[in-house]
Amino acid sequence: MLTEIHQILNTLTPITLTEMDSVKLMDRTDTKFTFHINQLPQVLELAKVHYKVFEINNKRISDYQTLYYDTSDLELYNIHHTGKLNRYKVRHRTYVDSNIGFLEVKYKNNKGKTFKSRIKELEVQKNWNSESTQFLLKKTPYIPSTLIPSLWVNYSRITLVNVESKERLTLDFNLEFKKGDNKQKLHQLIIAEVKQEKAKGSPFISIMKQLHIREGSISKYCMAMAYTDPSVKTNRFKQKLLSIKKILNHDTITN
Prior knowledge:
Radius of gyration: 18 Å
Number of domains: 1
Strand content: 35-45%
CATH architecture: Beta Barrel
CATH topology: Hypothetical Protein Pfu-838710-001
CATH class: Mainly Beta
Helix content: 10-25%
Number of strands: 11
Shape: globular
Order of helices and strands: HEEHEEHEEEHEEEEHHH
Oligomer: single chain
Number of helices: 7
Low-confidence stretches: 251-255
């Protein structure tokens, strides 16, 4: 499977890290889809005429390691679980292949718009330094000392960039969740996310419709929490978790 995926990716025009600066899309709308990795070659074949592929160090599939932070009573997770908007995620992300790290804050407002802020921070922090403290005070309503390591979400990513419009597409797989001693691997699941300045037409969204893969938002942090912490509430995510189970059993319908 991976050999076929690599072969298709090698037919795409590459885009460099410097060129990617034009499509950072820190202020954006997101549209997500989930499907089985068995469908990825077909998806890539249909998408390749519309997108370039991000390449770094001659690699077109990149590895990411992400540590999420939350309060001791999991306030950030619980706010998401209740369905409230105006919510935050705090994480440190390491781009393994380029040896770059960022402390990031994602904020989703009550209009469904996502805003991402970040500062360079190579080292994963367990105790905040002065720069990170100031950043968190500025970008979140939380006292930094109350934000502690919650869980890890690691995965591989293919990043595609629309050749005609300001749109970025990420395809995440090889998902691994770790919270304390609890671990879960979902290597066969693809989480695709279309990132645009505003919701509009997209070749990838058209492909998803063509393949009868329905839109369905899923938070990797919340999904990881549901899979690794049996004490948390998951009622709101029950349908999404059932959908994922169907996908991993080779059911291509996400809802």
